[in-house]
Design brief:
Layout (H helix, E strand, L loop, with lengths): L1 H4 L3 H9 L14 H7 L3 H9 L14 H7 L3 H9 L14 H7 L3 H9 L14 H7 L3 H9 L15 H8 L2 H9 L14 H6 L5 H10 L6
Helix pairs in contact: 3-4, 5-6, 6-8, 7-8, 9-10, 11-12
Length: about 220
């Protein structure tokens, strides 16, 4: 592995041709592929993959090479890994999927790329939040647009309160977001775990409720 630290590509190739173990690990559980990744050694990574590096190896911190590349926003490396069979639905030690990690870091290019390569658009984090819910909560407009275009479940509830993104948008007073969600199929009469409707959430925001409540009612919302 020392040859990787010193970027000695010719020595690495000689070792691999001599049947060196391409998947040996250091005291952190990192393989040569992960070490090359952390040092952004793209060409060496390609060579290691060619000689059989385990692309889905998990180190002692429960990170795969793809998880690490997404966390570091190494998009080119992430694409190399996906193109060579990396698991796009792996989860890190906190229960975040790769798509959720890309969403949380506002990496819209990778969000779209991962969705085009099989990432589960409705997987939830440990709190039961989907990528769409996370994007709405953090006002990530570009990512919201991508997720809805790719058919994210707009009516999915989070696990804690059973809130949908329409409830969140209504409570926060975002009329344009409310309109956008309803136009894309949001259920105006869905209830949370405690029986509260979208209108109940809109009523919590006294400053904007005069705009949002009439719009919701005009689109069939009822208050229970």
């Amino acid at each position: 592995m020392y040859s990787i630290f010193y970027k000695q590509q010719h020595i690495i190739k000689c070792l691999l041709e001599a049947k060196a173990n391409v998947n040996c690990i250091d005291n952190h559980g990192n393989t040569a592929l992960i070490i090359a990744l952390k040092n952004k050694l793209y060409e060496i990574m390609k060579m290691l993959i060619q000689y059989g590096a385990n692309i889905n190896h998990t180190n002692f911190y429960e990170d795969t090479p793809l998880i690490i590349s997404i966390k570091k926003k190494y998009n080119k490396i992430a694409m190399l890994l996906v193109d060579n069979g990396a698991d796009v639905n792996a989860k890190d030690s906190h229960g975040d999927t790769i798509l959720i990690l890309a969403t949380k870091s506002e990496n819209k290019d990778m969000v779209e790329y991962l969705l085009d390569h099989g990432a589960n658009i409705n997987d939830k984090d440990i709190n039961g939040n989907t990528p769409l819910f996370i994007a709405y909560y953090n006002c990530m407009i570009d990512i919201i647009s991508i997720l809805i275009k790719k058919k994210a479940n707009i009516n999915e509830k989070n696990n804690t309160l059973g809130i949908t993104v329409l409830m969140l948008a209504s409570q926060n007073g975002f009329l344009l977001n409310v309109k956008y969600l309803i136009e894309n199929g949001a259920n105006v009469n869905v209830k949370d775990h405690y029986g509260n409707t979208v209108l109940n959430y809109a009523s919590k925001n006294t400053f904007y409720c005069n705009e949002i409540i009439p719009y919701l009612k005009a689109h069939g919302a009822i208050k229970v």
